[in-house]
């Protein structure tokens, strides 16, 4: 999907020099203008195609390293050193720019350009990421897997006892109840098959209120969170967002967060260590899946009821792509 917001790097990585990022096989350059605001533009110069991430920033403008053309934050070329001073610069001598924003210490890029097309829907994320008084710890992963396979893996509850026997799958009954899930607009919410009460990540019993149960939510197409209640209004969440870099590379930006034991660094270490161990178990399997891209034709794979949330994602993606292609 081109009309979507993708996390592309931590905010701290957009500093003094232009920064290259890649989404869906296209390169973009990010830099900060005079005001500190991030600008996102095409990765290559319209003159002779030089890689603009090799350039520099001069008074808030992007300068190409090949012949020194300057581009301002709107993408317009403002200076061509080889031309006599005062020579008009045609409006088409420009870079496309893209909507970009910073949230949760990440840079988010909307990969459809700022043309005359209607403005994109503004960036939306989970309220869980927006608390001033929670503890947040970030991490990053790169999987050699297609975006579709990576996202589907976090909607798949039946793999837990097989892929994660010593982590999230401990004591999980392989028979999936339901699966219990809801779909509302762009959100798929899943209540995974509960762990045994002895499991360290699942201290509540399935018969308790829904709000006390572990909940997985996907904000289509690429933001995912798992919320695990810890009693006394304590909640521990793991957020992941998936960015398709190339057909066989997906970047994952994660945030481990909680609203209790804020000054306990050992909790940070526990949560991150646990999450990375779980993700390494998933990565190994997901990278092995063929075909690399999840097939849109449902008859190309064999399905069971526990696959329904992942199939809902697949159908949503297919519809979104159809709409996007129709809209170009
Ligand atoms: S290639 Fe960029 S100024 Fe010539
Ligand atoms: Fe998993």
From TrEMBL:
Instruction: Please state every residue range assigned to the domain named Rieske.
Output: 5-109
Q: Which GO terms describe its molecular function?
A: dioxygenase activity
* A UniProt-annotated Pfam family: Rieske
Q: Which UniProt keyword terms apply here? A: 2Fe-2S, Dioxygenase, Iron, Iron-sulfur, Metal-binding, Oxidoreductase
Reading the lineage from the top rank, the first entry is Bacteria
Which E.C. number(s) belong to this protein?
1.14.13.-
Q: Which Gene3D superfamilies match?
A: Naphthalene 1,2-dioxygenase Alpha Subunit, Chain A, domain 1 (3.90.380.10), Rieske [2Fe-2S] iron-sulphur domain (2.102.10.10)
Presence of the UniProt keyword Membrane in the record: no
Q: Which InterPro entries does the entry mention?
A: Cholesterol_7-desaturase, Rieske_2Fe-2S, Rieske_2Fe-2S_sf, VanA_C_cat
PANTHER family linked:
3-KETOSTEROID-9-ALPHA-MONOOXYGENASE, OXYGENASE COMPONENT, IRON-SULFUR DOMAIN CONTAINING PROTEIN
Q: What is this protein called?
A: Aromatic ring-hydroxylating dioxygenase subunit alpha
